[in-house]
Amino acid sequence: MKVLLVVYDNESHISQFPIGLAYLASAIRNAHGGNKHTVEVYEQNVYHWQDSHLTAFLDENEYDAVIVSVIGGYYQYKKLLNLSHAINTSKRRDKFKYLIGGHGPAAAPEYFLEKTGADVVGIGEGEITIVELLDAFENNTPLQDVKGIGFIDKESYIYIYSGRRELINNIDLIPFPAYDLFSINHYALLHLPNSSPTDRCLTMLSGRGCIFSCNFCYRLDKGFRPRSAQSIIDEIRFLKEKYAITYIGFYDELLMSSKKRTKELCQAFLDANLNIKWECNGRLNFADIPTLTLMKEAGCTFINYGIESLDNTTLKVMHKALTKKMIIEGIENTLKVGMSPGLNIIYGNINEPLSAIDDAVDFLLKYDDHSQRRTIRPVTPYPGSELFDIAVKSGKIKDVAEFYEKLHTNSDLLCVNFTNNSEEEIYDALYKANKKLLDAYNQSQARKVDELCYNLYVNKDKNFRGFRQT
Q1: Nearest to 24 by CA among 129, 173, 106
Q2: What digits encode the pLDDT tens for the residues 372-408?
Q3: 341 strand-pairing partners
Q4: Which domains does the chain have, with CATH numbers?
Q5: What is the signed CA dihedral for 406, 357, 433, 391, rounded to 10 degrees?
């Protein structure tokens, strides 16, 4: 089988490395000893081609399968519909299978099949599923024998789910992403928090899954599976030697799954003398001084924290396993050891008081070091999440179609109001809050420019190289 992976354009000047598709590409290419299937990548995200370009590309090139994967955002939903139209209008459409996957389609497979005209949707971890599915296409064997997929039966027009695909327990056995198929020199230009202008940055995974169950999370696969320290080190060394990468962004859901694991991983980095900068997603209940000190010594410069709320009752509703006291202590510890914290806060979970917005603003103004531009967004009940099920049961959302076609139009606007306040009150509070936060961020940038001017013209800074955009 000849397979084309389509990386959609998210309209970023420099795109984040599409690590999920890269893992899929590696699984396809390595199947059956690496002597059977071939893979190519269509990087719309790098070259910003119009969707019509994909139609022409498919008209001119022969493939047996075309794959698109998206998460559950409003932009990604619309983009998937547009790409599906481009794919389905190719004059060669009857010659290839169209496959979709990712957290968005996986949470509502029948709906996405109907909207996109795809032949199959992947549900769950894809490395084993995709190989079995390609073999089924090639050998003309029943699709229902392939676990982890959904499709519309062509004879009965009935949706069929083949059953849950078991997770890969030892993820060290999964081959590294197929980096060589992607434009790594493009992705390496991505600016990550506290990276220097000359750093070459790339994202990778330290594990899969999460040990927590936030009510707004739409991750379908439960549990957490860490990679071994040696496997992570081997991949980092490969990226340094092959692509001169100097900064790693660990973009899995939770590198800090425990103090013990975090310390062991950091010590392994030090023992291996990796000399690499990195960032990760972390947990504030594990953010004590000894753990954070070791993380910084091992090269960590930034920890992204899912705070979500400063209201203790709301934190319980979310299943965050955090308290306001834990949050403040963890953030103060992070700043104390000299690392930047990513302060993610959302508003609007079930019965969350309006005062939580003011509390969040006070917190952010006190602790944000402005390594990122930070605002407060409304919570979104994505299909697949507990919050979505609650919204449907309470009559706030009719179904997936209403969510994607009418309610979820923008991540900075309310999709569903779970609070006891009116939308007008919420928008007024968010406007005032985010204006303060953005003003504070802009003032911090202005101070940096003032410092540059002072050092240049007063201290005669000979290392100054122009007022450059960063």
Answers
A1: 129
A2: 899 999 999 999 999 999 999 999 999 999 999 999 9
A3: 303
A4: 2-161 (3.40.50.280), 188-457 (3.80.30.20)
A5: 0
